[in-house]
Amino acid sequence: MRAERLLRLLLYLQTRGQTTVAQLAQALDISPRTIQRDLEVLSLSGVPIYSIRGRRGGWALLPDYRTRLTGLTPSEVMSVFVGATAHVLADLGLDASSELAVTKLIASLPEATRREAEYARQRLLIDHAGWDDRRETPRWLDLTRQALWEELRLAIIYADGTEPFEVSPLGLVAKARTWYLVAARTDGRLRTYRLSRLTSAELTSTPFTRPPDFDLATYWAQSQREFQASRPSYPITLKVRDHAIRRFRPTTPMLPASDGWWILHTDLENPHEAQAAVLAQAGAAQVIAPPELITMVREAALYIATSH
């Protein structure tokens, strides 16, 4: 446990640079006193770590120091070598580099761990896309990535707009096969833009300062929560046959009803979507609630029966 904690501390300093004890304690979820002891342990162990005094002080590693990690566990090896998302790397033009990097990483591992890595790569593949996914051509991906790296503003026209406006790109997010740009407007508000809906994008020569407290993963998680909360909600209760369950997403644990039938609660966006979803099951889904949906399904089924 302590060795793992020390390794996390060392890696954090190696990737983030000079950091205060308070920042380390918050990032690693460890008490400041424990952080202080661990820093002293690392120093006594020969790690070139030093403290900087004063208001802008903290702890840091010597600039050229890098640790070699050869103690990967089998589960850690599997997570590294199986979890790559190939289509994202291909979109970024990094698929060849990724394969070369994996080859180098495997070659640097001890013999036993190398066998674990090769074993996992030959037997497990993670495909994050669904069967009905349509891959979007990331037309503006290279330009937005350049703006991100060089910290230059972009002038974009979005969706049905006609006038360009400037944004400061803060991050790119690949969700399944769709790319999104997270950017700050000139008034400081953060917005998310789907790259495929950009009708124009131009790199400007105007630099911007990235907000020091912005964290892409935190923003994206909050953005998804807000999106889910803002979606229309139409809860329904159904009686569904075994083979039709996969057509719905239960919001609570299902209950057995009778031979091959289950009581299922789910949530759709509106009554018409619910009506279409039930009718598409050709009798394998029956509405229990709400009453208005029962009426809608009956009327639609009667119309279908009398018109054929």
UniProtKB/TrEMBL annotation:
Pfam families: HTH_11 (PF08279), WCX (PF25583), WYL (PF13280). Residues 2-61 form the HTH deoR-type domain. Keywords: DNA-binding, Transcription, Transcription regulation. InterPro entries: CBASS_pafABC_assoc_protein (IPR051534), DeoR_HTH (IPR001034), HTH_11 (IPR013196), PafC-like (IPR028349), WCX_dom (IPR057727), WH-like_DNA-bd_sf (IPR036388), WH_DNA-bd_sf (IPR036390), WYL_dom (IPR026881). The keyword Transcription regulation applies. One of its GO terms (molecular function) is DNA binding. SUPFAM superfamilies: Winged helix' DNA-binding domain. The keyword Transcription regulation applies. Signal peptide: none annotated. It comes from the Bacteria. Gene3D superfamilies: Winged helix-like DNA-binding domain superfamily/Winged helix DNA-binding domain. PANTHER family: PROTEIN PAFC, PTHR34580. This is Putative DNA-binding transcriptional regulator YafY.
